[in-house]
Design a protein that fits this description.
Order of helices and strands: EEHEHEHEHEEH
Largest sheet: 7 strands, mixed
Strand order of the largest sheet: 1-7-6-2-5-3-4
Shape: globular
Helix content: 25-40%
Distance between the termini: 25 Å
Number of strands: 7
Number of domains: 1
Number of helices: 5
Amino acid sequence: MYGLWRPRVLGAWQLPAAGPLIIAVNHSHNIDGPMVMGTAPRPVHFLIKKEAFVGPLGPFLDGIGQLSVDREGTDRGAVTRALGVLADGGVLGIFPEGTRGEGDFASLRAGLTYFAVRSGAPIVPVAVLGSRERQGRLVSALPPLRSRVDVVFGAPFLAAEPGGRRTRTALDEATERIRERLTSHLERARRTTRRPGRDRQAAPGA
């Protein structure tokens, strides 16, 4: 990551040095996960779609502790492995939106809430900004080489009170609380880095 681009990491000091932790990352580009893996002060185990584990990339992802997940249904094996990471005091990485999108945390899925409430682990919001930059690309699928990509870590928070109820209503309230915290962090990160609401798109004909 540091060889191909110029990551600027902000707020990484806020990550607890030890203990279970969930990193919730906005997702608008394929390099968002690798960028966080390469800049976070602790090893991060991401839940990654099983399609990425095909071919020679599979053994590499396994070797660095990434977790394959089948997105077509409830992958109980992936859920067990993810909870195991947290039980061992590790860092679990999740894209709350489930797949690439606008990267604005607008459409959260239930997975993040489940892991946070089930494990009791704090959540650290992370905003990756600049990965969708199009102007100056040499490779169409990647941000311009040596361009700046901002990785902004936020303060940890709990999705629910320890020992609280796990009713449907309580989980819905926790999901809304998470959405508000993630959205607020993203807005602050954009102000801090002076990034627009969306990374700039290519000019017509570019």
